[in-house]
Amino acid sequence: MDKLKIALQKSGRLHEDSVKLLKECGIDISNGLNKLKIEAENFPLEVFFFRDDDIPQYVEEGIADVGIVGENVLVEKQALVDVIEPLGFGKCRLSIAVPRAAAYDSLNWLNGKRIATSYKNLLLQFLKNNNIEAEIHEISGSVEIAPSIGLADAICDLVSTGSTLFSNGLKEAETVFKSEAVLIAHKQLSDEKQHLLNKLLFRIKAVKKSKHNKYILLNAPNEKLNAICHILPGIKSPTILPLAEPGWSSVHSVVHEDHFWEIIEQLKAEGAQGILVIPIEKMIV
Ligand code: PRT
Ligand code: ZN
Question: Cβ distance 50 to 35 under 8 Å?
């Protein structure tokens, strides 16, 4: 039987989360992380480890069927692949930053300036969309030091916490692109491989969904059950079980993290007691 070939980053910021995601999908490859290629034992999957920069091209060419890569790299490389699913990790933004002392007021400040970046294509498109004429200096690493050594007036680089910019005397001026890790696929997968990808995607979605939801249990006086069930819709509807103490019930349900604290407050206001909140490992609805 054919195996699905997946390309992951060999080492770096996406490596651990990519391996963890597979593991949460029931595919454990942790005993082969030092190899370039390993076969999963309990899923027809072959895992290849590459530099992230190479993953879009390898998937486009079909050397790998699917891959996990940052959208920033994918769009910069302009690879012809299908984006299957955002994965919720590796979040960052590509931003233009300028020296803290610069009197930056608007994008026009960038006209005629030199901007150092490793993301030439993304920056070029951004400048074009905004009618800015600037000179792009393409450099491959340590972009953040370019202004202090006189190589550029500004930079365009990835930011997550902003501490690298801060410690290099820079301030964030504009967001060019927002990114996270995505699952990508070759454009013409065989039926068999498409079937395997669907199986993998089903698991990934169940893992993702579980992360945004929590299992909640609480005790409530019976006369409050209506009001409480109204606050806790659950997947279908909440489970209600009688407590040993007459007049009381235990209510079980699932809540989305977006509304979590509001819901807890409302439940308390309605007389809920002994509220327990438990992480969900997988969620299939
Ligand atoms: O060796 P290989 O080529 O595979 O790895 P790499 O060195 O090119 O990439 P790597 O591992 O640094 O990043 C892989 C991917 O992680 C990126 O393409 C992004 O999609 C994502 N990502 C998320 C980040 C960051 N956050 C990030 N903060 N990639 C890089 N950074 C760097 C940034 O370049 C800057 O130097 O971190 C610094 C800024 O971080 P803060 O927290 O100080 O703002
Ligand atoms: Zn790279």
Answer: no
